[in-house]
C-alpha cells in the first residue's frame, strides 16, 4: 500500500501560467503568453497545444524527451515559440505578434504526457488588449473605456466619498469642539452672536 501511495503522488502533471492569469497588451504590440509544465515522472513524446477561446488551435508542438527542444506541428502565422524544454523549467511559452483587439480573450495552454498514461492538464490566461490611439473602432473604445474607465471612475468616486465623509466628520468634530468651548464659558458676551447661539444650545444639553 505505501508503494501505491508514492506512485499516486508521483503521478502528477501540472501546467502553470504564473501567479496571475490575467494580462494586458497594447494594440499592435507583441505579447509573451507564459506557460510551464512539471512532471514527477519525466516525459516522452509530450504534446502541447495552445488554444484561443477554447476552440481555435494557435500552436501545436511535440517534445521527444528532456534532451530535445520542441518540434513544431502547426501554428498560427502570428505565433512563435518562445520557451525552452532542455532547461530546468520546461517552458512552453509563446509570443503573439502584433496583437489586435480581436485577439483579446482566453488562451489555454494544454499538455498531454503519454509517459503518465496520457495524463493531461491545462492552464488559462485571459488577455485584454487596450487601445493605443483614440481613433480605434468606436464600439471597442467604448468597451475599453467602459471597463478601464469604470474601474478608475469607481476608484475616484470612492476617494471622493471618503474625502467628503472625512470632511463632514472633521467639521462635525470641529463644530462640537466650538460648541463645547463656547458653552463652557460663563461670560459669552465677547463672542457676540456665536455666544448667544451657544447659550441657546446649552439648556437642551443640561
UniProtKB/TrEMBL annotation:
Residues 2-126 form the Ig-like domain. Residues 178-206 are annotated as: Disordered. Keywords: Disulfide bond, Glycoprotein, Immunoglobulin domain, Membrane, Signal, Transmembrane, Transmembrane helix. It is a single-pass type I membrane protein. Its main location: membrane. GO terms for cellular component: voltage-gated sodium channel complex. GO terms for molecular function: sodium channel regulator activity; transmembrane transporter binding. The chain crosses the membrane at residues 140-161. GO terms for biological process: cardiac muscle cell action potential involved in contraction; regulation of ventricular cardiac muscle cell membrane repolarization. Residues 181-191 have a biased composition (Polar residues). The keyword Zinc does not apply. It is found in: Membrane. It comes from the Eukaryota. Residues 1-18 form the signal peptide. PANTHER family: MYELIN P0 RELATED (PTHR13869), SODIUM CHANNEL SUBUNIT BETA-4 (PTHR13869:SF14). This is SCN4B protein. It comes from Smithornis capensis. The gene is Scn4b.
Amino acid at each position: 500500500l505505501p508503494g501505491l501511495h508514492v506512485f499516486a503522488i508521483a503521478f502528477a502533471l501540472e501546467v502553470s501560467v504564473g501567479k496571475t492569469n490575467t494580462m494586458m497588451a497594447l494594440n499592435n504590440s507583441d505579447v509573451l503568453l507564459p506557460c510551464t509544465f512539471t512532471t514527477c515522472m519525466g516525459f516522452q513524446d509530450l504534446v502541447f497545444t495552445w488554444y484561443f477561446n477554447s476552440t481555435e488551435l494557435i500552436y501545436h508542438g511535440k517534445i521527444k524527451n528532456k534532451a530535445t527542444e520542441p518540434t513544431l506541428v502547426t501554428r498560427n502565422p502570428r505565433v512563435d515559440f518562445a520557451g525552452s524544454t532542455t532547461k530546468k523549467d520546461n517552458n512552453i511559452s509563446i509570443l503573439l505578434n502584433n496583437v489586435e483587439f480581436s485577439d483579446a480573450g482566453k488562451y489555454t495552454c494544454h499538455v498531454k504526457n503519454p509517459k503518465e498514461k496520457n495524463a493531461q492538464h491545462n492552464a488559462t490566461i485571459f488577455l485584454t488588449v487596450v487601445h493605443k490611439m483614440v481613433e480605434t473602432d468606436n464600439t471597442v473604445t467604448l468597451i475599453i473605456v467602459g471597463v478601464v474607465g469604470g474601474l478608475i471612475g469607481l476608484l475616484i468616486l470612492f476617494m471622493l466619498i471618503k474625502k467628503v465623509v472625512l470632511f463632514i466628520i472633521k467639521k462635525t468634530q470641529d463644530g462640537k469642539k466650538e460648541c463645547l468651548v463656547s458653552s463652557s464659558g460663563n461670560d459669552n458676551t465677547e463672542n457676540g452672536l456665536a455666544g448667544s447661539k451657544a447659550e441657546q444650545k446649552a439648556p437642551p444639553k443640561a
